[in-house]
Amino acid sequence: MEKFNSKILVEPDDNFTPEVRAWSLEKYKLVGSYCDIFTNSMKDKWNQLVYIDLFAGAGYSKITETGNTYLSSALLAMSIPNPFTKYILCEEDIDRYTALQNRVKKDFSHLDVTIINGDSNKIIDQVYKSIPPFNKGNTLLPFCFVDPYSLNLHFNTIEKLGSKMLMDFLILQALHMDGNRNLAKYLKEENEKIALYLGNNNWREEFNPSCNNYSTNFVKFLADQYLNNMKSMGYVPEKNMHQIRSNEKNLPLYYLGYYSKHPRGVDLYKKVEKYLTQQTKLEF
Predict the structure, then answer these.
(1) How many CA atoms are closer than 13 Å to the CA of 57, on its beta-carbon side?
(2) Per-residue pLDDT tens digits for 187-216
(3) In a domain, 4, yes or no
(4) Are 49 and 39 in contact (CB under 8 A)?
(5) 44: which residues sit within 8 A by CB, 6+ positions away?
(6) Is the CB of residue 147 less than 8 Å from the CB of residue 121?
(7) In degrees rounded to 5, what are phi and psi of residue 132?
(8) Any domain includes 283
(9) Which end of the chain has a smaller Cβ tally under 10 Å, C or N?
């Protein structure tokens, strides 16, 4: 079967289009390829396949280095040969939200799409209620892509979805571009960002004080803590994290962490990684 082209070049339109760096194309390639293999593999096994995007963006992204415009995650997920039966998209920024609405209406009105304006951390109950009902005779399997700009994702947000049903996650984890760079700030007692990210107010006590000045240890700590949190909800205890690096200096930026409650999901993710030209694994 021919592989889905998850780098879809489009003509600019009159709607708002954010600029992103060239390394975002690797992220789009991973999420687009996974959506394709996910629906191809699961369409005959589940009655409903749902795509959830908690930071959906505008649907288009302009690459700073080239000026070219590409489909971003939400519209990529709608462009696959075997679409999901339902799409739930969440976007807080009003310009991105409006642009996404317009683009979905123009090119994807034939699909079942719910677009919600708001911070996914605050309206996750509304996102959950938008998931179609299911039972033994009407089975459902969601895939949730989470693409925050920093470590501004609350673990409670993920827990409200993952603890209640079978759901696969692909989560951008800004462990270097945010966690690494801001370790000194986050160690201050008044800063709650890591506590919310991990769902753990006592994380400072658990993070070895002797390692406070070594950011690589902080990256490992965050990754391990997050995996342990996911394991507590029944997710496979395996670290599947794809590293994204900058184009200029090859510096680590963030990871795309994949989580599934079934080994079959992990197998699909590993197949997708083979599609990528740069095979960078998480190393400590």
Answers:
(1) 23
(2) 888 999 999 999 999 999 989 766 666 666
(3) no
(4) yes
(5) none
(6) no
(7) -60, 150
(8) no
(9) N
